[in-house]
Amino acid sequence: MNILIVDDSRTMRMMVRRTLRQAGLNVDNAVEAENGKDALDKLRDFKPDLILSDWNMPELDGLALLRTLRTHRIMIPFGFVTAQGSPEMREKARLAGANFLISKPFTADTFAEVLGPMIKAA
Amino acid sequence: MPPSFVVPDVKEISKMLGILLGREVKVAKGDRIRTGARDKYTLGVFVAENQDIVGVCVTDFPLASNFGAALSLFPPHKAKKCIDEGEIEATIWENTLEVYNVVSRYFHDAHEGMVQLGPTWRDGEQVPVEVRKFMRASTDRVDLIVNINGYGHGAMALIG
Questions:
Q1: Which partner from A41, A56, B34, B107 sits 20 to 30 angstroms from B139, CA to CA?
Q2: What is the ipTM of this complex?
Q3: Structural domain total, chain A
Q4: Is B112 in contact with A88 (Cβ distance < 8 A)?
Q5: What does residue A57 show for φ and ψ, rounded to 5 degrees?
Q6: What does DSSP say about strands A2-6 and A50-53: parallel, antiparallel, or unpaired?
Q7: Counting Cβ atoms within 10 Å, is residue A58 exposed (0-12), middle (13-18) or buried (19+)?
């Protein structure tokens, strides 16, 4: 499985990679982007099976990234990994077309539980 | 009028920081954090969608440095160097901000819409008057001593 990791924090991108490994998830290739705009640029050459994105980012935030993708009928599975975990924000994410929202801080168990079935199915 | 901040339980904060940093973090209530003219501290402001201030997280230099080092598994001496020199280096500070970002969760429940990390200050001396006024006016706050296993301890306050 190929994954695009979108987060403006370099450390958080590294932690997502590390947690994917700790969760025993089989990721062939993980590419990083530092905001939504950078993610759209990366998507010209990289075709991920899953996008993991932060919500609050400069230039283009995660919700705007998701809405841009869905507007262009790009239906790559998309999940937020974010400090925004309130029911209201979860609903906003769902309505925009997100497949899931993982709240920071996250554990390997959470990644395995949420991402495991998607990665096995890919 | 709804509360501006639901003061979290210290056990919950301890658990949250433990998961974030991947190591044991002990948290206990402490004395009021020192934010006087001669004190070294760092600060992050949480803002609502209309950019109103809804909360503040203050950390003293040792805790800000230890947060930043522990998040990236930097050796503890990198944090000590920042503490000794009285200046938090950029890579450590970037991580400290990520801790602040996750702490924003404690301000979500009392506010509609998105609450997110807004302006931050690596040096408390630079904190503007309106933020100081918010801190003085607040009645909802918790002052903590946070001990990160393998790194060290420091003070933190969550103010809503």
A1: A56
A2: 0.87
A3: 1
A4: yes
A5: -145, 150
A6: parallel
A7: exposed
Rounded to a whole number of angstroms, the CA Rg of chain B reads 15
The full set of domain ranges for chain B reads 10-159
- Rounded distance between C-alpha atoms, residue B30 and residue B21, angstroms: 21
B88-133 confidence digits (pLDDT tens) = 999 999 999 999 999 999 988 777 778 999 999 998 888 999 999 9
The CATH number covering residue A34 comes to: 3.40.50.2300
Compute the distance between CA of residue A103 and CA of residue A82 in angstroms, rounded to an integer: 5
Q: Mutate one of A81, A86, A101, A109 to test the B interface: name it (highest B CB count within 10 A).
A: A86
Token pair 């393998």: residue: B150
Q: Please give the structure tokens belonging to residue A103.
A: 């709240």
B22: nearest CA in chain A?
A107
| Domain with A48 in it | 2-121
Contact list, B101 vs chain A (CB under 8 Å): 9, 56, 83, 104
Topology of domain B10-159, CATH: Chemotaxis protein chec (3.40.1550)
User: Residues 6 or more apart from B120 whose CB is under 8 A from it?
Assistant: B42, B43, B44, B45, B97, B100
DSSP for residue B33: P
Low-confidence ranges of chain B (pLDDT < 50): 1
A103 near B CB under 8 A: yes
